[in-house]
Amino acid sequence: LDSFPINDDIFSMPATTTTAGGTAQPPQATSDPFLSTDFVEESAQPLGSSMSSEVDEEENERQRQRDAEQQAFNRKLYLKDEKERTRIEEKRRKAQEELRKWHDDRRQRIQQKMEFNREEEKHSREMKQQLNHGSSWKKVASMINFNDGGERKEVARMKSVLLAKKNED
């Protein structure tokens, strides 16, 4: 700080001044460099009552316009919020409906699968029971489709041998 010389009056003034009564007071500036003479002259003129009422009216009118704009903005926000709530409720309703439908479809598929499995198990038991009561050649013959149309000679011979063995028992 010592290397920078300061020639400004503000920095050379004491921080406080002591009065005769011993109380500390801030220093009094002798001149204000920011105060222009034009401003002082304008502010020195008294405002007329007609000017202040016009200013008050203009200010009131601007305030009414701001209030009206704010009300319009709030109404617009309210309508937008209401539209958003309606859209969200519609999506929730559709989601619940789709979820209910999915559960119903799932329940139906599980029921069909259970019925199919029961039928397969019943068929499997019947086949097993039939195979247990007959001879071994009857069991083999029950597993072969004899009504095949386009037979080869080797397969035809095998089928005829199996039929012969089945009928022997």
Outline the structure in words.
The protein is mostly helical. The chain is 71% helix and 2% strand. The protein contains 5 helices and 2 strands; from the N terminus they run αββαααα. The chain has helices at 9-12, 37-44, 49-133, 136-142, 153-168, and strands at residues 17-18, 24-25. α4 crosses α5 (153-168). The longest helix is centred in the middle third of the chain and has 85 residues, at 49-133. It is rod-shaped, with a radius of gyration of 53 Å. The N and C termini lie far apart (127 Å). Mean pLDDT is 77; it is low at 40-45.
In short:
Helix 4 (136-142) packs across helix 5 (153-168). The protein has helices at residues 9-12, 37-44, 49-133, 136-142, 153-168, and strands at 17-18, 24-25. The protein has five helices and two strands.
Can you tag this structure with a few keywords?
rod-shaped; 169 residues; mainly alpha; two-stranded antiparallel sheet
**Overall radius of gyration:** 53 Å
SSE pattern, N- to C-terminal: HEEHHHH
Helix content: over 70%
Provide the β-strand percentage band.
Answer: under 5%
Q: List segments where confidence is low: pLDDT < 50 over at least 5 consecutive residues.
A: 40-45
Strand line-up in the sheet with most strands: 1-2
Extended strand count? 2
- Our measurement of the CA-to-CA distance between the termini, rounded to an integer number of angstroms, reads 127 Å
